[in-house]
Amino acid sequence: MVLAISFLEAPLKFRAPGVTTTIGLGIGRLVFRALNVCELVFAVVIAAALFATSHGFGIDVAFTVAIAALFFQTVVVRPLLARRTAEVLAGDEGTRSRAHFAYVALEVVKVIALIVGGIALLSA
């Protein structure tokens, strides 16, 4: 889900014919809100599974990193992006937000952590 939405859908939607910045930002708000809700549900399930079972330290670390990245995105970065989106929708084009770079960096961290955790689970 993270790969498909963050690294495919998000940049491609602005290249579609007739999609303005306003429409793209509106779509992005809805899509990323839905993605984060799904991710938070999965994070709760993963956290419960980590506490309920015994497994290797590497698995704990990998999934804890993924959950921490999601938490930081949700609590710190998304509010900054929401504020900037509101400004752009109000007509203030201004400079591009650096929060996007933080969000993308955290997406990369999540993907790597999930891959490492998945491999560790398969190897256990």
Which segments are poorly predicted (pLDDT under 50) over 5 or more consecutive residues?
A: none
Number of strands: 0
- Residue share in helices? over 70%
Provide a count of the helices.
Answer: 4
> How many discrete structural domains?
1
Shape: elongated
The major beta sheet can be summarized as: none
Mean pLDDT: 89
First CA to last CA: what distance? Answer: 24 Å
Which key phrases capture this entry?
124 residues, mainly alpha, 82% helix, elongated
Structural features, described:
The structure is a single chain. This protein is an all-alpha fold and 124 residues long. The chain has 4 helices and no strands. It is elongated. Keywords: Membrane, Transmembrane, Transmembrane helix. The chain crosses the membrane at residues 30-51, 57-81, 101-122.
